[in-house]
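#struct-help
A.M.: can someone run this one for me? Single chain, 555 residues.
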Amino acid sequence: MAENNGIKLFGFELRRLGKEKEEKNLKSIVPKVDDDGAGYVTAAGSHYGQYLNMDGDDSKDNTQLVMKYRGVAMHPEVDQAIEDIVNEAITGSEMESAVDLVLDKIENLSDSIKKQLREEFDKVVSMLNFNELGHDIFRRWYVDGRIYFHLVVNDSNLKAGIQEVRHVDAAKIRKVKQVKKKKDPATGASVVTKTDEFFVYQEKSKSGNVYSHGSGVKISSDAMCYVTSGLLNEDKKKIISHLHKALKPINQLRMMEDSLVIYRLARAPERRIFYIDVGNLPRGKAEQYMKDIMARYRNKLVYDAKTGEIKDDRKHMSMLEDFWLPRREGGRGTEISTLSGGENLGQIEDINYFQRKLFGSLNVPVSRMNEEQVSNILGRATEINRDELKFQKFIDRLRKRFSKVFLEILKKNCILKGIITEEDWDSWKNDIIVNFVRDNYFAELKESEILRERITTLESMQNAELVGTYFSKEWVMKNILKLDDEDVKKMQAQISGEGGNNEPTDQQEESKEEEFLEDIVVESEVDEESKILENKVKEKELQVLENVAQALATS
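D.P.: on it. Structure tokens below:
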């Protein structure tokens, strides 16, 4: 149980003594603005009892807005678009995890800390059961525009870290920021001295309202994981979902579909016109006679817009109301004629227009709405619609925003266990990346197409002998292959490690020296043998000369 300036808060709280001292020295007339959509409440003096009006319209509007998003998500077209988005964002299989932690960009971080961070990240994924429920968690966050998790710990042993992560319904909880102001004696302005953050949770009452009279449970902000869509309404006070801009198109589409069904039911069948001969009956008896005839044949159908069904309580003699007209004696007598039905009932251009408008508001390519285009869309990257690339960028933004769920829980768990400090996390948070498994076929086709074009350009330059004559290798790597300095160094190191460069390595130099010494030894042995042969030849020549000299002397 945490305590913050007299307020009892449920859950644990991380102490930040250094930051509290720094915030006391920072003065401003407005509180710090965040994109979390928290409601600001100003405390009067030092009394913190009546800090939140539980019957306020803001709380009710926030809850009703979440319920409206969930109702809209049940529409078939919206559900199809949401499924496309979630399926692209969260991928994975039984053999691999849907997410992993990348720490390569963090400098001066020991391998032991990296190993511990990866192990704790795997525990966070396990506590969320993300490999099994990742699709549902991401869909819940996308539809509601926010997601809450309660971080359960053992109060008697906080160093054991987070023991369990429990999801909290977004319609039952809200973040509140309590602002305490003090008047500046020099300027007379109200200066913000402190801002406290906490969450207020309350179950539904018997009347069905989430926030009824009475105070809810105040939960410490450290004991909660709260991630929003990052979208705010026009006054920057409420968090809205990505479905918010689709509210108007979906309502228009619903009305057009209902009106189209009603119009076709009303105009498609042929109506009958009954001319009833009432003779010389008085007015009252003539009307009663008409009603008796109508009760026998008339059939009234009612269309239910909620279920799409037609309620029929009588006979199936006609589809809708017929026309009954009295005819006095002297006319042509009783007669039944038909009124032709409506024409051009197969035109649905207006329905298609609102469907395209709806898909556009949900950032889903319109081509996915047409099954024929989807079946023929896979091909070369140059044939891919540009909307698919925009859709992939939208998915990347959603992934980056949703990754805060893992990072917030990982941060608090590592701080509780003493693996890192909050200052360490603040210095590393921009370099910690949550990598999602990519499964977008169109993005892969585009990347392979770009790489193929670069390699083709490089081959043409090499065939024309431009590299080394007019362009350097470094210029080609940076401007043709689009490699930065770090990539160039990595490539050169990898090439040298694979033995594919022209520069001799130490092993190659040693082998060359050994071969040179062997050649010298062989040459020395050959020289010695040649010298021995030369000496033998000289000795034989001397013997021959001596023999010749003796022969001449005896003669």
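A.M.: thanks! The two ends are 138 Å apart (CA to CA).
D.P.: also worth noting: The first strand starts at residue 2 and ends at 4.
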